[in-house]
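Researcher: We're reviewing a set of sequences before deciding which ones to prioritize for further study. For each one, I'd like a predicted 3D structure that I can look through quickly. This is Homeobox protein vex1. If possible, include the structure in token form so it fits the rest of the review sheet.
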Amino acid sequence: MEKGPFSVEWLAQSSRGGAQPAAAARRPRSPGKGVSSPPDAPVPAAALRDREAAHRSSPGHEAEAGGGAAPPGRPRTKFSAAQLQELERSFREQRYIGASEKRRLAAVLNLSQSQIKTWFQNRRMKFKRQTQDAR
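Model: Here's the predicted structure for Homeobox protein vex1, in token form for your review sheet.
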């Protein structure tokens, strides 16, 4: 019986220095990672985010960023006056947005649901700061 490249027996053998299949020998292993995925398997998005976060928090990365510049990624959304007016109106009615209202606003304002959710989170924090400052 031939043992497959990711069977328990093969992993035990390979950890003791046994032979590796050709595909696994060609693929470099990531240091500190557990069992590697098959050679053609896509890298999960969570793994990419973890790598990016580790890179940003690594020593010396502050110098690369240019002294406090935002990390590369999605540019800040500039909301139009009409979008802000509708978002503020909805916020006055209810500070916590439901799923159906979020979908409706996203469609009406031509924004993503995550942008709506983030706007409401930020607006609640602004409201909290304003009420604390007023006291």
